[in-house]
Write a structure and sequence with these properties.
heterodimer, A: about 110 residues, six-stranded mixed β-sheet, four-stranded antiparallel β-sheet, 12 strands, B: about 120 residues, mainly beta, seven-stranded mixed β-sheet, globular
Chain lengths: ~110, ~120
């Protein structure tokens, strides 16, 4: 069955520190991959997506993610976290023959001053 | 207005009430979705409409009834809900009509529902 796993439920980092959020997928073929961010009281906003090509993709707000086929992973990174990055981050995957995406459980990011 | 707008943002209802959630998208998208977001659970897809036709119904109880009168509007009619239905209900839209997992979703801010 298709699935997306985000191993970390909650992560706390200090402002200015680097960040990596993990995402693993289980699909029959390489899926389309997405990272969404959800700020408190808001809906989800697309940060970045991977469809094909360069395995390092750049997104909004200084985020990037790297697709690693060998590890079935699509981890999200940011070199220096800002307090405004505190939010819920959701990884999602979709297959070309299916019209819906599968979402992970989400990772809550807390940023310490 | 731009994007996807959901009303009301907050709703409290009793188990015998009938209420509706409304979603409107101003993006010219062809597909609209209802998702349920419960605490510490992944997003659950409820319904999908593509070009105003319902193309997916994920075994959702009949106490939830969707309606898509046109490509810009989507409703979720609620009746005789249970306390476990309390959640954040998110509406989303995508430019592509249903059929590909490559669809990028644009979400509304959600309607926080509490069932007493």
């Amino acid at each position: 069955a298709q699935s997306v796993t985000q191993p970390d439920i909650h992560i706390t980092v200090s402002e200015g520190a680097s960040l990596e959020l993990r995402c693993n997928y289980s699909y029959g073929a390489t899926p389309y991959l997405f990272w969404y961010v959800q700020s408190p009281g808001q809906g989800l906003q697309l940060l970045l997506k991977y469809f094909s090509g360069d395995t390092l993709v750049q997104g909004i707000k200084g985020f990037e993610a790297e697709f690693k086929r060998s590890q079935s992973s699509f981890n999200l990174r940011k070199p220096s976290v800002h307090w405004s990055d505190a939010a819920e981050y959701c990884c999602a995957a979709g297959a070309s023959d299916a019209g819906k995406s599968t979402f992970g459980d989400g990772t809550t990011l807390t940023v310490k001053p | 207005e731009t994007g996807v707008t959901q009303t009301p943002r907050h709703l409290v209802m009793g188990m015998t009430n009938k209420k509706s959630l409304k979603c409107e998208q101003h993006l010219g998208h062809n597909a609209m979705y209802w998702y349920k977001q419960s605490a510490k659970k992944p997003l659950e897809l409820m319904f999908v409409y593509s070009l105003e036709e319902r193309v997916e119904n994920n075994s959702v109880p009949s106490r939830f009834s969707p309606e898509c009168p046109n490509s810009s509007h989507l409703f979720l009619h609620l009746h005789t809900l249970q306390p476990e239905d309390s959640a954040l209900y998110l509406c989303a839209s995508s430019q592509a009509a249903i059929g590909s997992g490559a669809n990028v979703l644009t979400f509304g801010a959600g309607s926080r529902l509490t069932v007493l």
